[in-house]
Automatic annotation (TrEMBL), chain A:
Matches recorded under PROSITE patterns: KS3_2
Record carries keyword Cytoplasm: no
Pfam family, one: ketoacyl-synt
Listed CDD domains: CLF
GO terms, molecular function: 3-oxoacyl-[acyl-carrier-protein] synthase activity
Family to which this protein belongs: Belongs to the thiolase-like superfamily. Beta-ketoacyl-ACP synthases family.
Phylogenetic lineage: Bacteria, Bacillati, Actinomycetota, Actinomycetes, Kitasatosporales
Protein name: Ketosynthase chain-length factor
Residue intervals of the Ketosynthase family 3 (KS3) domain: 22-421
TrEMBL record, chain B:
Superkingdom, natural source: Bacteria
Organism classification: Bacteria, Bacillati, Actinomycetota, Actinomycetes, Kitasatosporales
TM annotation in the entry: none
Name used for this protein in its record: Acyl carrier protein
PROSITE patterns assigned to the protein according to its UniProt record, in alphabetical order: CARRIER (PS50075)
Pfam families cross-referenced by the UniProt entry: PP-binding (PF00550)
SUPFAM superfamilies for this protein: ACP-like (SSF47336)
Length: 424, 87
């Protein structure tokens, strides 16, 4: 075992860490469950076509709530996609995560699951755990009594449940865990995967699939004060627009397979791109007047990647849709790149904000932008010129070798990730 | 309780592994081979407790490694419960 704190070049460093540390890890598999498409192919086609998945909530009756729109994953048949033994013990968002993980692993062509594999692990992100499952069981508790609560409540509503279920289902016996940093988690989890690879793992299934479209989740998110109450799906979630009024929440996200570069090369894997740089920062205390941490996260991530701002071909924005947060993000982007100097996009305008799933889905979009040379659009938004951003409002042909993905989590979390074309 | 009734409850409470034939002769097949772990059995036992108004000791449930042992224990508990009710 290698020490988590040992510098990579120190004597005693595990051979795997030295080998894996010589090149940035690479993405070899993508699995998607998104409100505008289930499965990578459907989602990416819809995304480039500007098709939104934001609609009135259907998973429960939201008509009595101030916010009535959500991004819900369409056409998900749990009975067909999830082993029967797992149905009584999984929340809806865990089922989506299992489907995405299966797609990602199949896409990667990696050889896993034959035997307990200590070199392959899981690092996921979560913001709330299985709220819909938890609500049902808590209702059973107070309405009928403790003996009516499912034994599976013991883990089904935990933050770490997706990591655990993916690990068990695919025989991934290596390091396994969960990051909880609200929306920044979808990037932070992938950085955790990189740490595991540097310490000797060969493959980590990572990313986030999240969602709490149920009365309990809804109430909890409403108290955050950032949800829009606009009921028109085309006018509700408008980041960087003068009419921004908050966000629409959604369910889903992406699961990615991140491999040590040498391991991927040895098995001749197709790679989507490299995880070239990353940083996380924390905001100063509210009301302190300090600058938010996002600019610093961007600069540190670029430095980590050894990338100059001029080399970045596109920025996937956090896109809060809250005017003050949009201003802060635009200011951070301008401070690093200059005004209107880099294309900025927010395909999450088609999905809603997916909590811990958002950053991972944006990473998937960044990787496919690299593959296809096209930037997905930010829909419905008329950019407020005051932000000084080159906002991509319709799909744009544009060669991409380097993409920057941003995510902010409520509570002060900032994360920035640089992905590059393989071999960059 | 019969094997068929127990099997139906296991299916409902804990699902059914795609590689297992629950309708075959499973009376003496270890529950683990039927892909039911301790939590699956605990969940099913909890359901039986609610449906039949009895208490099943967790330790005794955990020691019942086959449907036959589990049924024996459940039926003993049901008989005791009926005897107490009649007394």
């Amino acid at each position: 075992m290698t020490s988590a704190t040992a510098p990579r070049t120190a004597p005693g460093t595990a051979p795997g860490e030295r080998r894996a540390g010589t090149a940035a890890p690479v993405f070899t598999g993508i699995g998607v469950a998104a409100p505008n498409g289930l499965g990578t192919r459907d989602w990416w086609r819809a995304t480039l076509a500007g098709e939104s998945g934001i609609r009135p909530v259907s998973r429960f009756d939201a008509s009595g709530y101030p916010a009535t729109l959500a991004g819900e994953v369409p056409g998900f048949d749990a009975e067909a996609r999830i082993p029967n033994r797992l149905l009584p013990q999984t929340d809806h968002m865990t089922r989506l995560a299992l489907a995405a993980a299966e797609e990602a692993l199949a896409d990667s062509g990696a050889d896993v699951g034959q035997a307990p594999d200590l070199t392959a692990g899981v690092a996921t992100a979560a913001s709330a755990g299985g709220f819909e499952f938890g609500q049902r069981e808590l209702q059973a508790l107070w309405s009928k009594g403790g003996q009516y609560v499912s034994a599976y409540q013991s883990f089904a509503w935990f933050y770490a449940v997706n990591a655990g279920q993916i690990s068990i289902k695919h025989g991934l016996g290596g390091p396994s865990g969960v990051l909880v940093t609200e929306q920044a988690g979808g990037l932070d989890a992938v950085a955790q995967a990189r740490r595991h690879l540097r310490k000797g793992s060969r493959l980590i299934v990572t990313g986030g699939v999240d969602g709490a479209v149920c009365p309990w989740g809804w109430t909890a998110q409403l108290t955050g004060g950032r949800m829009t109450t606009v009921a028109d799906p085309a006018a509700a979630y408008l980041p960087f627009d003068a009419a921004a009024s908050g966000h629409v929440p959604g369910e889903g996200g992406a699961i990615l397979v991140l491999e040590a570069e040498a391991a991927a090369r040895e098995r001749g894997a197709r790679t989507y791109g490299a995880f070239a740089g990353y940083a996380a920062t924390f905001d100063p205390p509210p009301g302190s007047g300090g600058e938010p941490g996002l600019r610093r996260a961007i600069e540190l991530a670029l430095a980590d990647a050894g990338t100059a701002p001029q080399a970045v071909d596109v920025v996937f924005a956090d896109a809060a849709g809250v005017p003050s947060l949009d201003r802060a993000e635009a200011a951070a982007i301008r401070a690093v790149f200059g005004a209107r100097a880099v294309p900025v996009t927010a395909p999450k305008t088609m999905t809603g904000r997916l909590q811990a799933g958002a950053g991972s889905l944006d990473l998937a979009a960044a990787l496919l932008s690299i593959r296809d040379g096209v930037l997905p659009p930010t829909v419905n938004v008329r950019p407020d010129p005051g932000h000084g951003l080159d906002l991509v409002t319709s799909a744009r042909e544009h060669p991409v070798r380097t993409a920057l993905v941003l995510a902010r989590g409520q509570g002060g979390f900032n994360a920035a990730t640089v992905v590059t074309a393989a071999g960059s | 309780m019969t094997l068929a009734e127990l099997t139906a409850l296991l299916r409902e409470c804990a699902g059914e592994d795609e590689g297992v034939d629950l309708d075959g002769d499973t009376l003496d097949t270890p529950l683990a081979e039927l892909k039911y772990d301790s939590l699956a059995v605990l969940q099913t036992a909890g359901r039986i407790e609610c449906d039949y108004g009895i208490r099943l000791s967790d330790d005794a449930v955990a020691e019942a490694h086959t449907p036959r042992l589990l049924l024996d224990f459940i039926n003993e508990s049901l008989a005791e419960s009926r005897a107490q009710a009649a007394a």
